[in-house]
Amino acid sequence: MTAPIGLLGGTFDPIHVGHLRTAIQAKEQLGLSEVRLLPNHIPPHRATPDSAPRHRLAMTRLAAAATPGLTVDERELKRTTPSYTIDTLIELRTELGTRPLCFIMGMDSLCGLDKWHRWHELLDHAHLVVSHRPGWKPELNDTLAGLYQHHGIQDREALHRTPAGHIFLLDNPELEVSSTQIRDCVRRGNNPQYLLPDAVANYIRQQGLYSGSVV
Ligand code: ATP
User: Fold this and answer.
1) Closest ligand 1 atom to the C-alpha of 174?
2) The Cytidyltransferase-like domain covers which part of the protein (predicted)?
């Protein structure tokens, strides 16, 4: 079976080292052929100021261009309506046949997984690979603990043997970085350097993102 493909979804507003180190660690630890960064539509309930999809896409492209092994999957932003992860995974499963797919997420996302649309179907189409994140202990509610008990594995090779169905916790250093923190930093007129790639920091400055007005 060919090496698994990784997929890391996010709003990436902006993309930062927490996302990028997670992608690199997953690729290297699990022997993934590539990690596709998947910028999402921002759900309507999210607070402003959020940057426009074209800016989030541009920043994601800049980050991927600077990082070997990372690519950008633009499908969710190209749709005119917000899409659910399950729809994207079903679409990718059709494209990939039986090739393993690892959907990568932070521990905060795993802790809220049972609120996702058709969450119980996600593992039919992909493995879930979870990175540790400061402030988020693997304390799952009963439903998710049951899911982990059933699907959790420690053998990374198992992710290569089946197309989907396992949950794997990455062994990654926790990086205390969030997009919220970077937006706040820029809004206060401070320097976000080293929290994100230089090319992305330059783009934010050139485009005047997060400086108070909604772009
Ligand atoms: P915001 O602060 O705007 O909520 P965020 O920093 O959480 O954004 P997202 O784009 O919402 O970033 O996250 C995309 C994915 O990356 C999620 O699965 C999230 O858990 C994960 N992630 C984000 N930051 C980190 C980090 N520092 N370490 C590990 N995973 C992270």
Assistant:
1) 28
2) 7-183
